[in-house]
Design a protein that fits this description.
Layout: E1 19-22, E2 28-33, H1 39-47, H2 51-58, H3 67-74, E3 81-88, E4 91-101, E5 114-121, H4 130-144, E6 149-154, H5 159-166, E7 171-177, E8 180-186, H6 191-213, E9 217-221, H7 230-240, E10 246-250, E11 260-261, E12 264-267, E13 279-282, H8 289-298, E14 303-306, H9 316-331, E15 335-337, E16 343-346, E17 353-356, E18 363-371, H10 374-386, E19 390-396, H11 405-414, E20 420-425, H12 431-442, E21 447-451, H13 472-481, E22 485-487, H14 490-502, E23 510-515, H15 518-530, E24 534-535, E25 539-540, H16 547-559, E26 565-570, E27 573-574, E28 580-581, H17 585-598, E29 604-608, H18 614-620, H19 636-642, E30 656-657, E31 663-664, H20 669-681, E32 708-709, H21 712-732, H22 748-759, E33 768-769, H23 772-780, E34 789-791, H24 795-805, E35 809-813, E36 827-831, H25 834-848, H26 851-854, E37 856-860, E38 866-875, E39 879-886, H27 889-894, E40 897-901, H28 906-914, H29 933-949, E41 953-963, E42 968-970, E43 973-977
Parallel strand pairs: 5-6, 9-10, 9-13, 10-12, 13-14, 14-15, 18-19, 18-20, 20-21, 21-22, 23-24, 23-25, 23-26, 26-29, 29-32
Antiparallel strand pairs: 1-2, 2-3, 3-4, 4-5, 6-8, 7-8, 11-12, 16-17, 16-19, 27-28, 30-31, 33-43, 34-37, 35-36, 35-37, 38-39, 38-41, 39-40, 41-42, 41-43
Helix pairs in contact: 6-11, 8-9, 10-19, 10-20, 11-12, 14-21, 15-21, 16-17, 17-18, 19-20, 24-25, 28-29
């Protein structure tokens, strides 16, 4: 394990520079400052570097480091001289160093803002992206220490190092001097450098997931010597799925002469295997996990799936055990799924991996599924299994101490086998990154999310994440802005996911409804209206309709240019004797398939009531299963519960220790798992569908891909989500922009100077609110004019203020408990003269209290209009959020506020004011004159720009903003400044530490 560095004699050891990073090949490494304790590590590292690499570093043969060199390279002041090392397994694999220099290239101190930089990467690790990651981190360190430029001398033959600098995206200059290439890099991040960084991050994290999902060999650690138990169950599932690679069973309690178990090689340790192992599934008690991790790390295992429980879900002690597990695994370059995990599945034909406790993996398909809860994972697998749906990959990550939903979004973004991503999340460790990744992924394939633990006010056990102060409604709005389809239940997630996987995207909200039940058609019509769709009057085919009638009606609806989607409703036929007949569902399914195949590519959904065989026939027509499953074959949930392999909640594999040290599940887990499964699957297993591999959403014909639902509301809700997603995707194809005219009226440098002076040289970390005039001055730098107010401590002062401002005026209190509360009588408007003002002043003080308590002010009246509120605030988890709503108690009571992430574009601003429920008031409701929404959009953009340019502005509230038919007036403003919070999303790449 890594040592704890000593403090430098010159400057405190900067532990915030330490970081775990994912390299290009998917492995991990640790970056940290070099200390005086690293002399032996440095010498050992240098001995393993080739003579050619040494020559490139020192421009001359340099076979070994002198004592003086070792001292110089391990003693830093962490200001003018800084060295960073990349370590794997505690040993150096690369180093970088900068030395501050003056304009003549001589050693210097601040305020000199240039430094010479040099890298050295061990040959065995070149090509892994080590130098690129080091450049990001040493550049961030340099900027922190006031260095703005790097200078580097590189031999012309050192093409790899030249490429590292060239591809970094920084503004740079190159020249050829004295036989070497002289490079100067401006360290200020650019749009290009940020894009390069995020592109590398995506490729590296996707590769790290791919290494887990497509291993060439798997070892299961903790395989019991007798049948049963978690380890033995995983091994059986691995073999039952037909894993294409090599499998090994590991248990330190195996006899020395035991060669095999369940037909696979048996070993007492990973080291005994003698061949490379790519993935290890750890199913041993928590106190034995460190030993297993060390065994894996020393043998070069690439990744771990830790099923063992007893970590953060068990409290403070378990949380520390979990952190140590992550530190230990990352020190060896390994990534972890878990702990407390259910496992992972990859249905690719070339892999066929079932490293989980699900004995029957779902059929191959085009849906990727990630869940943090084992119980929810069981329920989803069961529901998808019964509906005939197929998955490309499945991951149940448990405590997700390392690998998270973000990593799988990185992988699914470019995965050709996944068309739709479904995620059940109970916490979001890095919301800013999640939003960014989800937006990018949603631009090419749907992302459907169920967010658990939304209202509990606490983080689920085992999930240590930043605490957000924003309400769930705001989180939902921000997800929608990113194109995420957020639904409330796992039932809705499956419904929407299957429609999106099976059907093309709708071109609009116009829905045709047809069927043989007038009542069911009307229910569908009402559901469409409730979801904001535009249904056509239902076409009643009557109960006498035949499958051919359905076929003809569907074909006609699909051919209609005024129709974007079709919902087919069907009930059983009634025979001549008056008895209901189930009818031949297969015949109806064939008729619907035929019409859909021949018509234009539009989504079709079926709502059916007890028509035997219909749902099964609709699914079977496009089943992704190579061969039909025997009817008696159990579902994943039922089979899992019978083996005793599941528990409720997050971990379906809470192990207990057998006599031989292997682990099994507690007997009490089975009942709980059955309860969780039956509750969740009853709602999701009543309709059937499937996926295929040749039709991404919105690109195929939709033929043969008709999902069926047992209720109109479910079908329509899924269709509405597809309509909204399709609209977002069309808009995302042409992204919004910040209008250039704002640049002419914004004084960004002046605002920065003002903020610095207001915060002072030693700002209070809690921040400070600005006085009214201070807020007016700062907002004015961004072209936001706040109408002045004058204090009125007594009637005479009020009269003098009114004379100065000009009649008519408003008199209002500014006491915190009365601010913006016109309903409490703290505001008097349209005071046309002195007598009216004095009378209002007397009434105000008589009703509400003394002037000292009320803090009255006088303000000139603004033109009549609609009172609105504009706010911006920085949330520690979500980032900067821009909000808009109408002023007044009704909007607050109903939560009628819209939100967007900062920076907002012109499209965001337009959508913001139109997305509140009371938006018609702004556009001429009940004959009123429409207000100046263009001016309102500009104000929103200016507030967004201010908060984005200056992270010290942690909150702004403009209330009220009176929007008139021509222009607007900001009557009140409050601003709070604080030292800028850390922006981890803009810094160098690093893995989170929870």
């Amino acid at each position: 394990m890594e040592h704890v560095p000593e403090q430098s004699p010159h400057h405190a050891y900067p532990d915030h520079w330490e970081a775990d990073v994912v390299l290009r090949d998917g492995g991990t490494a640790r970056i940290r400052p070099i200390t005086t304790d690293d002399a032996e590590r440095l010498v050992s590292f240098y001995e393993q570097v080739s003579d050619e690499s040494k020559y490139y570093r020192f421009f001359a043969p340099y076979p070994r480091l002198s004592d003086r060199d070792v001292h110089r390279f391990t003693h830093h002041d962490y200001v003018d001289r800084v060295g960073l090392a990349v370590t794997v397994g505690g040993e150096f694999i690369a180093t970088v160093r900068y030395d501050r220099i003056d304009e003549r290239g001589r050693p210097a101190s601040a305020p000199a803002d240039e430094a010479e930089v040099a890298f050295l990467v061990q040959d065995a690790h070149q090509g892994r992206g080590v130098a690129s990651a080091l450049l990001e981190h040493i550049a961030a360190v340099a900027r922190e220490r006031g260095i703005r430029r790097f200078a580097a001398e590189v031999l012309p033959a050192n093409n790899k190092m030249i490429k590292v600098f060239r591809d970094a995206g920084y503004t740079q200059q190159r020249s050829f001097e004295d036989g070497s290439v002289h490079l100067t890099l401006d360290l200020e991040p650019t749009a290009e450098s940020l894009a390069v960084q995020r592109g590398r991050e995506q490729r590296a994290e996707a590769r790290s997931v791919q290494r887990l999902l497509a291993p060439g060999s798997v070892a299961v650690i903790g395989v019991g010597r007798t049948p049963g138990g978690v380890g033995r169950t995983v091994l059986r599932n691995l073999l039952g799925a037909g894993f294409t690679g090599r499998a090994y069973a590991v248990n330190r309690a195996f006899a020395a002469d035991q060669a095999t178990i369940d037909g696979v090689p048996a070993h007492r340790s990973i080291g005994e295997i003698g061949e490379p192992v790519d993935l290890a599934v750890v199913a041993v008690p928590a106190d034995r996990v460190p030993e297993a991790v060390a065994d894996c790390g020393e043998q070069g295992v690439q990744g771990l799936v830790v099923l063992s429980a007893g970590y953060a879900e068990w409290g403070a002690e378990g949380r520390e055990r979990q952190r140590e597990l992550v530190r230990q695994a990352r020190s060896y370059g390994m990534r972890i799924i878990g702990p407390n995990a259910f496992g992972l599945i990859n249905n690719a034909e070339t892999v066929r991996l079932n490293a989980s406790l699900a004995p029957e993996p779902p059929a191959p398909g085009r849906i990727g599924l990630f869940t943090q809860s084992g119980a929810i994972g069981i329920a989803l697998l069961s529901g998808l299994y019964r509906r005939g749906a197929g998955l490309s990959t499945f991951i149940s990550a448990g405590n997700r101490a390392d690998i998270s939903g973000n990593d799988f979004l990185q992988y699914w973004y470019e995965d050709p086998d996944t068309d739709v991503a479904l995620l059940y999340l109970e916490s979001i460790g890095n919301p800013r990154k999640f939003t960014r990744l989800a937006r990018r992924t949603a631009a090419v394939k749907p992302v459907v999310v169920v967010k658990g633990a939304r209202h509990s006010g606490s983080t689920p056990p085992g999930h240590a994440v930043p605490v957000s102060r924003i309400p769930d409604a705001t989180v939902s709005a921000l997800m929608r802005q990113a194109g995420v389809i957020q639904v409330d239940t796992v039932t809705e997630m499956v419904d929407a996911g299957l429609l999106l996987a099976d059907q093309p995207l709708p071109a609009g909200p116009r829905v045709a409804i047809l069927g043989n039940s007038e009542s069911l058609g009307l229910l569908t019509y009402d559901a469409c209206l409730a979801e904001g769709l535009r249904p056509r009057p239902p076409l009643d085919l009557t109960t006498a309709a035949t499958p051919q009638d359905f076929r003809n009606a569907l074909a006609e609806a699909l051919a209609d240019d005024g129709c974007d989607a079709v919902v087919v409703t069907a009930i059983p036929w009634v025979g001549e004797d008056g008895e209901a007949e189930a009818g031949d569902g297969e015949v109806l399914a064939a008729a619907l398939h035929t019409a859909a195949a021949a018509g234009p590519a539009k989504p079709v959904a079926v709502v059916h009531v007890e028509i035997g065989g219909l749902a099964e026939a609709l699914a079977a027509a496009t089943s992704t299963v190579a061969q039909p499953r025997p009817p008696a074959q159990p579902s994943p949930a039922a089979a899992a519960t019978r083996t005793g392999a599941t528990t409720p909640d997050r971990n379906p594999a809470t192990p207990r220790t057998d006599a031989d040290g292997t682990s099994t599940t507690p007997a009490t887990s089975t009942t709980d798992a059955i309860t969780a499964t039956s509750t969740a699957t009853d709602a999701v297993t009543t309709s059937t569908t499937s996926t295929t591999t040749d039709n991404a959403p919105g690109t195929g014909t939709g033929a043969g891909r008709i999902p069926a639902y047992p209720a109109a509301e479910r079908a329509v809700r899924a269709l509405a989500e597809a309509v909204r997603y399709a609209q977002w995707r069309r808009q995302a194809a042409v992204p919004g922009k910040v209008p250039e005219f704002l640049d002419d009226t914004i004084d960004e440098p002046g605002a920065a100077r003002l903020i610095d002076s207001l915060l002072g040289p030693d700002p209070d970390p809690r921040g400070r609110p600005l006085a009214h005039e201070e807020a007016r001055e700062l907002l004015g730098r961004y072209g936001i004019t706040v109408r002045p107010t004058l204090p009125a401590p007594d009637p005479d002062a009020a009269v003098a203020a009114a004379a100065r401002l000009g009649y008519p005026v408003a008199l209002k209190t500014t006491a915190p408990h009365l601010r913006h509360r016109a309903d409490l009588g703290g505001v008097r408007l349209d005071l046309a003269n002195e007598s009216a003002l004095r009378r209002a002043y007397g009434e105000l003080t008589e009703l509400l209290g003394r002037p000292a308590e009320l803090q009255p002010v006088v303000q000139a009246m603004a033109p009549r209009g609609v009172d609105t509120v504009v706010r911006a605030a920085i949330d520690p988890a979500a980032g900067a959020v821009l909000s808009f709503g109408l002023a007044g108690a009704p909007s607050e009571l109903l939560g009628d506020t819209a939100h967007r992430l900062v920076p907002a574009t012109d499209r965001d601003a337009a959508e913001l004011i139109r997305s509140i429920r009371a938006a018609p008031v702004l556009f001429g409701w009940r004959g009123a004159a429409p207000v100046d929404t263009t001016a309102l959009e500009e104000l929103l953009l200016r507030v967004s720009r201010l908060v984005d340019d200056h992270p010290e502005v942690v909150s702004i509230a403009l209330e009220p903003v009176v929007v008139a038919p021509q222009g607007l007036t900001v009557l009140g403003a409050s601003v709070r400044l604080s030292p800028p919070p850390a922006r981890t999303d803009l810094g160098p790449r690093r893995l989170p530490n929870y």
